[in-house]
Amino acid sequence: MKLPPSSRSQFTPDLNICRILNGMWQVSGAHGRIDAKAAISTMFDYVDAGFTTWDLADHYGPAEDFIGEFRRQLIATRGKEALSNIQAFTKWVPRPGKMTRKLVEDNINISLKRMDVDCLDLLQFHWWEYSDINYLDALKYMSELQAEGKIKHLALTNFDTEHLKIIFDAGIKIVSNQVQFSLVDRRPEVNMIQFCEQHDIKLFAYGTLCGGLLSEKYWGRPEPRGGDLATVSLRKYKNMVDAWGGWNLFQELLNVLKQIADKYGVSISNVAVRYILDKPAVAGAIVGARLGISENMEENAKVFGLTLDALDYEQINAVSSKSRNLYELIGDCGDEYRR
User: Fold this and answer.
1) Any idea which architecture 7-337 has in CATH?
2) What is the model's pTM?
3) Structure confidence by residue, pLDDT tens digits, 108-137
4) CB under 8 Å, gap of 24 or more: what pairs does 98-107 form?
Protein backbone atom coordinates (compact mmCIF):
# COMPACT_ATOMS: atom_id res chain seq x y z
CA MET A 1 0.00 0.00 0.00
CA LYS A 2 1.35 3.40 -0.98
CA LEU A 3 -0.51 6.61 -0.19
CA PRO A 4 -1.02 9.10 -3.04
CA PRO A 5 0.55 12.59 -3.06
CA SER A 6 -2.83 14.00 -1.94
CA SER A 7 -2.21 12.38 1.45
CA ARG A 8 0.55 14.91 2.15
CA SER A 9 0.44 18.57 3.16
CA GLN A 10 3.23 21.12 3.46
CA PHE A 11 2.24 22.10 6.98
CA THR A 12 5.23 24.40 7.51
CA PRO A 13 8.20 25.08 5.21
CA ASP A 14 10.16 22.35 7.01
CA LEU A 15 7.41 19.86 7.87
CA ASN A 16 5.62 17.83 5.21
CA ILE A 17 2.97 15.76 6.98
CA CYS A 18 0.41 13.04 6.38
CA ARG A 19 -3.08 14.55 6.54
CA ILE A 20 -4.29 11.66 8.70
CA LEU A 21 -2.27 11.78 11.89
CA ASN A 22 -1.83 8.73 14.09
CA GLY A 23 -3.41 9.65 17.43
CA MET A 24 -1.62 8.19 20.45
CA TRP A 25 -4.22 8.99 23.14
CA GLN A 26 -5.12 5.32 22.73
CA VAL A 27 -1.86 4.24 24.40
CA SER A 28 -2.53 6.32 27.51
CA GLY A 29 -4.16 3.43 29.39
CA ALA A 30 -7.72 4.72 29.12
CA HIS A 31 -8.43 2.46 26.12
CA GLY A 32 -7.11 -0.83 27.46
CA ARG A 33 -3.70 -2.41 27.84
CA ILE A 34 -1.11 -1.81 25.12
CA ASP A 35 1.83 -4.16 24.63
CA ALA A 36 4.87 -1.91 24.11
CA LYS A 37 6.79 -4.33 21.89
CA ALA A 38 3.82 -4.94 19.60
CA ALA A 39 2.98 -1.23 19.54
CA ILE A 40 6.43 -0.16 18.41
CA SER A 41 6.56 -2.92 15.81
CA THR A 42 3.25 -1.65 14.43
CA MET A 43 4.62 1.89 14.24
CA PHE A 44 6.95 0.66 11.49
CA ASP A 45 3.91 -0.60 9.55
CA TYR A 46 2.23 2.81 9.81
CA VAL A 47 5.28 4.68 8.58
CA ASP A 48 5.92 2.20 5.76
CA ALA A 49 2.32 2.67 4.62
CA GLY A 50 2.79 6.46 4.52
CA PHE A 51 1.17 7.38 7.83
CA THR A 52 4.27 9.16 9.07
CA THR A 53 2.84 11.80 11.42
CA TRP A 54 2.17 11.15 15.11
CA ASP A 55 0.09 13.13 17.58
CA LEU A 56 0.89 12.60 21.25
CA ALA A 57 1.26 14.38 24.58
CA ASP A 58 3.29 14.44 27.74
CA HIS A 59 0.33 12.90 29.62
CA TYR A 60 -0.57 10.14 27.11
CA GLY A 61 1.02 7.43 29.22
CA PRO A 62 4.13 6.07 27.45
CA ALA A 63 3.46 7.80 24.11
CA GLU A 64 6.58 9.98 24.20
CA ASP A 65 8.65 6.96 25.30
CA PHE A 66 7.26 4.94 22.37
CA ILE A 67 8.41 7.65 19.97
CA GLY A 68 11.88 7.60 21.54
CA GLU A 69 12.20 3.82 21.29
CA PHE A 70 10.79 3.82 17.76
CA ARG A 71 13.38 6.40 16.72
CA ARG A 72 16.20 4.31 18.22
CA GLN A 73 15.00 1.16 16.45
CA LEU A 74 14.58 3.09 13.20
CA ILE A 75 18.19 4.30 13.37
CA ALA A 76 19.43 0.80 14.24
CA THR A 77 17.61 -0.90 11.35
CA ARG A 78 17.48 1.77 8.64
CA GLY A 79 20.02 4.43 9.49
CA LYS A 80 19.74 7.93 10.89
CA GLU A 81 18.50 9.39 7.60
CA ALA A 82 15.22 7.45 8.05
CA LEU A 83 14.32 9.84 10.88
CA SER A 84 13.56 12.53 8.30
CA ASN A 85 10.51 10.54 7.25
CA ILE A 86 8.64 10.86 10.56
CA GLN A 87 7.01 13.76 12.38
CA ALA A 88 6.04 13.63 16.06
CA PHE A 89 3.84 16.36 17.53
CA THR A 90 3.61 16.40 21.31
CA LYS A 91 1.74 18.54 23.84
CA TRP A 92 2.53 20.20 27.12
CA VAL A 93 -0.40 20.38 29.53
CA PRO A 94 0.80 22.01 32.78
CA ARG A 95 -1.22 22.83 35.85
CA PRO A 96 -2.08 26.53 35.88
CA GLY A 97 0.02 28.68 38.16
CA LYS A 98 3.12 30.82 38.08
CA MET A 99 5.29 30.04 35.07
CA THR A 100 9.04 30.50 35.31
CA ARG A 101 11.64 30.01 32.62
CA LYS A 102 13.08 27.07 34.59
CA LEU A 103 9.72 25.34 34.99
CA VAL A 104 8.96 25.59 31.29
CA GLU A 105 12.45 24.50 30.21
CA ASP A 106 12.52 21.59 32.65
CA ASN A 107 9.26 20.24 31.22
CA ILE A 108 10.41 20.69 27.63
CA ASN A 109 13.62 18.86 28.50
CA ILE A 110 11.59 15.91 29.81
CA SER A 111 9.81 15.58 26.47
CA LEU A 112 13.08 15.96 24.56
CA LYS A 113 14.64 13.16 26.60
CA ARG A 114 11.62 10.82 26.41
CA MET A 115 11.26 11.28 22.65
CA ASP A 116 15.06 11.11 22.15
CA VAL A 117 15.19 14.28 20.08
CA ASP A 118 17.24 17.47 20.18
CA CYS A 119 14.32 19.60 18.98
CA LEU A 120 10.53 19.09 19.19
CA ASP A 121 8.85 19.23 15.77
CA LEU A 122 5.71 20.83 17.21
CA LEU A 123 4.80 21.65 20.80
CA GLN A 124 1.05 22.03 21.30
CA PHE A 125 0.19 23.92 24.47
CA HIS A 126 -2.97 23.49 26.53
CA TRP A 127 -4.05 25.66 29.47
CA TRP A 128 -6.94 24.85 31.80
CA GLU A 129 -7.83 28.29 33.21
CA TYR A 130 -8.16 31.38 31.05
CA SER A 131 -8.60 33.51 34.19
CA ASP A 132 -4.99 32.63 35.05
CA ILE A 133 -3.08 34.69 32.49
CA ASN A 134 0.21 32.97 33.29
CA TYR A 135 -0.34 31.10 30.03
CA LEU A 136 1.14 34.13 28.26
CA ASP A 137 4.31 33.83 30.33
CA ALA A 138 4.50 30.12 29.51
CA LEU A 139 4.22 30.86 25.80
CA LYS A 140 6.79 33.64 26.05
CA TYR A 141 9.31 31.23 27.57
CA MET A 142 8.45 28.60 24.96
CA SER A 143 9.16 31.21 22.29
CA GLU A 144 12.58 31.78 23.84
CA LEU A 145 13.26 28.03 23.82
CA GLN A 146 12.13 27.94 20.20
CA ALA A 147 14.66 30.64 19.34
CA GLU A 148 17.31 28.56 21.09
CA GLY A 149 16.51 25.52 18.93
CA LYS A 150 14.63 23.26 21.35
CA ILE A 151 11.27 23.66 19.56
CA LYS A 152 10.67 24.02 15.82
CA HIS A 153 7.11 25.31 15.99
CA LEU A 154 4.67 26.44 18.66
CA ALA A 155 1.02 25.42 18.57
CA LEU A 156 -2.06 25.26 20.77
CA THR A 157 -4.60 22.66 21.83
CA ASN A 158 -8.23 23.48 22.66
CA PHE A 159 -7.88 27.26 22.73
CA ASP A 160 -10.95 29.25 21.75
CA THR A 161 -10.91 32.02 19.16
CA GLU A 162 -10.89 34.83 21.73
CA HIS A 163 -7.75 33.57 23.47
CA LEU A 164 -6.08 32.55 20.24
CA LYS A 165 -6.44 36.20 19.23
CA ILE A 166 -4.97 37.38 22.55
CA ILE A 167 -1.94 35.17 21.95
CA PHE A 168 -1.64 36.35 18.35
CA ASP A 169 -1.88 40.00 19.44
CA ALA A 170 0.87 39.36 22.00
CA GLY A 171 3.20 38.65 19.09
CA ILE A 172 3.57 34.92 19.71
CA LYS A 173 3.77 32.96 16.46
CA ILE A 174 1.35 30.02 16.53
CA VAL A 175 1.19 27.65 13.55
CA SER A 176 -1.80 25.50 14.56
CA ASN A 177 -4.58 24.83 17.04
CA GLN A 178 -5.88 21.34 17.74
CA VAL A 179 -9.66 21.27 18.23
CA GLN A 180 -12.57 18.87 18.29
CA PHE A 181 -14.11 18.90 14.81
CA SER A 182 -16.50 16.37 13.34
CA LEU A 183 -19.86 16.02 11.62
CA VAL A 184 -21.33 16.12 15.13
CA ASP A 185 -19.20 18.95 16.52
CA ARG A 186 -18.92 21.70 13.92
CA ARG A 187 -18.18 24.56 16.31
CA PRO A 188 -14.91 25.51 14.54
CA GLU A 189 -17.03 26.73 11.62
CA VAL A 190 -18.53 29.54 13.72
CA ASN A 191 -15.44 31.69 14.40
CA MET A 192 -12.28 29.61 14.51
CA ILE A 193 -11.85 28.81 10.81
CA GLN A 194 -12.25 32.43 9.74
CA PHE A 195 -9.65 33.67 12.23
CA CYS A 196 -7.21 30.92 11.29
CA GLU A 197 -7.56 31.63 7.58
CA GLN A 198 -6.92 35.33 8.17
CA HIS A 199 -3.73 34.67 10.14
CA ASP A 200 -2.29 31.58 8.44
CA ILE A 201 -2.97 29.25 11.36
CA LYS A 202 -3.83 25.61 10.63
CA LEU A 203 -6.26 23.35 12.44
CA PHE A 204 -5.78 19.76 13.50
CA ALA A 205 -9.11 18.04 14.02
CA TYR A 206 -9.62 15.38 16.65
CA GLY A 207 -12.77 13.45 17.52
CA THR A 208 -13.48 13.31 13.80
CA LEU A 209 -14.83 9.76 14.13
CA CYS A 210 -16.43 10.41 17.54
CA GLY A 211 -14.34 7.68 19.12
CA GLY A 212 -15.56 5.16 16.54
CA LEU A 213 -19.27 6.01 16.71
CA LEU A 214 -19.12 7.35 13.14
CA SER A 215 -18.75 3.89 11.63
CA GLU A 216 -20.72 0.91 10.34
CA LYS A 217 -20.44 -0.68 13.77
CA TYR A 218 -23.09 1.69 15.12
CA TRP A 219 -25.20 2.07 11.96
CA GLY A 220 -28.69 0.72 12.53
CA ARG A 221 -27.83 -0.28 16.07
CA PRO A 222 -29.74 0.40 19.29
CA GLU A 223 -28.43 3.13 21.52
CA PRO A 224 -25.34 1.94 23.42
CA ARG A 225 -25.36 2.35 27.17
CA GLY A 226 -23.04 1.77 30.11
CA GLY A 227 -20.91 -1.27 29.47
CA ASP A 228 -21.47 -1.03 25.71
CA LEU A 229 -19.20 2.02 25.73
CA ALA A 230 -15.97 0.19 26.42
CA THR A 231 -13.46 3.03 25.97
CA VAL A 232 -13.12 6.52 27.37
CA SER A 233 -13.41 7.83 23.79
CA LEU A 234 -16.78 6.17 23.23
CA ARG A 235 -18.11 7.52 26.52
CA LYS A 236 -16.84 11.01 25.77
CA TYR A 237 -18.29 11.22 22.27
CA LYS A 238 -21.57 9.52 23.16
CA ASN A 239 -22.12 12.47 25.51
CA MET A 240 -21.38 14.80 22.60
CA VAL A 241 -23.91 12.96 20.42
CA ASP A 242 -26.52 13.31 23.18
CA ALA A 243 -25.92 17.06 23.39
CA TRP A 244 -25.95 17.38 19.59
CA GLY A 245 -29.31 15.76 19.02
CA GLY A 246 -29.53 12.25 20.42
CA TRP A 247 -29.31 8.74 19.05
CA ASN A 248 -32.24 8.91 16.62
CA LEU A 249 -30.81 11.93 14.80
CA PHE A 250 -27.37 10.31 14.90
CA GLN A 251 -28.85 7.25 13.15
CA GLU A 252 -30.29 9.57 10.53
CA LEU A 253 -26.78 10.95 9.98
CA LEU A 254 -25.31 7.45 9.77
CA ASN A 255 -27.96 6.47 7.21
CA VAL A 256 -26.96 9.37 4.98
CA LEU A 257 -23.26 8.63 5.42
CA LYS A 258 -23.88 4.96 4.60
CA GLN A 259 -25.62 5.90 1.35
CA ILE A 260 -22.72 8.15 0.39
CA ALA A 261 -20.14 5.54 1.41
CA ASP A 262 -21.85 2.86 -0.68
CA LYS A 263 -21.92 5.18 -3.68
CA TYR A 264 -18.12 5.44 -3.61
CA GLY A 265 -17.28 1.98 -2.26
CA VAL A 266 -15.81 3.34 0.96
CA SER A 267 -16.79 3.37 4.65
CA ILE A 268 -18.85 5.70 6.81
CA SER A 269 -15.62 6.64 8.60
CA ASN A 270 -13.96 7.56 5.31
CA VAL A 271 -16.78 9.96 4.45
CA ALA A 272 -16.68 11.51 7.94
CA VAL A 273 -12.93 12.16 7.73
CA ARG A 274 -13.03 13.42 4.14
CA TYR A 275 -15.73 15.95 5.02
CA ILE A 276 -13.55 17.49 7.73
CA LEU A 277 -10.33 17.39 5.70
CA ASP A 278 -12.10 19.43 3.02
CA LYS A 279 -12.85 22.26 5.46
CA PRO A 280 -10.80 25.47 5.16
CA ALA A 281 -7.73 25.77 7.42
CA VAL A 282 -7.76 22.05 8.32
CA ALA A 283 -4.26 20.62 7.88
CA GLY A 284 -5.10 17.16 9.15
CA ALA A 285 -7.41 14.88 11.06
CA ILE A 286 -6.20 12.81 14.00
CA VAL A 287 -7.41 9.21 13.91
CA GLY A 288 -6.73 7.09 16.97
CA ALA A 289 -4.21 4.26 16.58
CA ARG A 290 -4.73 1.34 18.97
CA LEU A 291 -1.21 0.11 18.28
CA GLY A 292 -0.88 -3.66 18.20
CA ILE A 293 -4.61 -4.16 18.85
CA SER A 294 -6.57 -3.00 15.80
CA GLU A 295 -5.17 -1.34 12.71
CA ASN A 296 -7.18 0.53 10.09
CA MET A 297 -4.45 1.63 7.74
CA GLU A 298 -5.96 0.19 4.56
CA GLU A 299 -9.37 1.65 5.35
CA ASN A 300 -7.94 5.06 6.29
CA ALA A 301 -5.99 5.15 3.02
CA LYS A 302 -9.27 5.19 1.08
CA VAL A 303 -9.93 8.72 2.35
CA PHE A 304 -7.32 10.03 -0.07
CA GLY A 305 -9.08 8.62 -3.12
CA LEU A 306 -12.47 10.01 -2.13
CA THR A 307 -14.02 13.19 -3.52
CA LEU A 308 -17.42 14.29 -2.21
CA ASP A 309 -19.82 16.06 -4.56
CA ALA A 310 -22.35 18.84 -4.02
CA LEU A 311 -25.20 16.40 -3.42
CA ASP A 312 -23.21 14.63 -0.69
CA TYR A 313 -22.66 17.91 1.13
CA GLU A 314 -26.30 18.84 0.73
CA GLN A 315 -27.49 15.55 2.24
CA ILE A 316 -25.08 15.76 5.18
CA ASN A 317 -25.88 19.40 5.89
CA ALA A 318 -29.61 18.66 5.80
CA VAL A 319 -29.19 16.35 8.79
CA SER A 320 -26.84 18.76 10.56
CA SER A 321 -29.45 21.50 10.26
CA LYS A 322 -31.76 19.49 12.54
CA SER A 323 -29.23 19.31 15.39
CA ARG A 324 -28.86 21.52 18.40
CA ASN A 325 -26.40 24.40 18.25
CA LEU A 326 -23.38 23.13 20.19
CA TYR A 327 -21.73 26.54 20.02
CA GLU A 328 -24.66 27.98 21.99
CA LEU A 329 -24.83 24.99 24.34
CA ILE A 330 -21.13 24.50 25.05
CA GLY A 331 -19.28 27.54 23.73
CA ASP A 332 -16.35 27.86 21.38
CA CYS A 333 -13.69 25.23 20.75
CA GLY A 334 -12.31 23.77 23.97
CA ASP A 335 -14.83 25.47 26.26
CA GLU A 336 -16.04 22.04 27.41
CA TYR A 337 -12.72 21.70 29.27
CA ARG A 338 -13.16 24.96 31.18
CA ARG A 339 -16.54 24.74 32.87
Assistant:
1) Alpha-Beta Barrel (3.20)
2) 0.95
3) 999 999 999 999 999 999 999 999 999 999
4) 98/134, 98/137, 99/134, 99/135, 99/137, 99/138, 99/141, 100/141, 101/141, 101/144, 104/138, 104/141, 104/142, 104/145, 105/141, 105/145, 105/150, 107/58
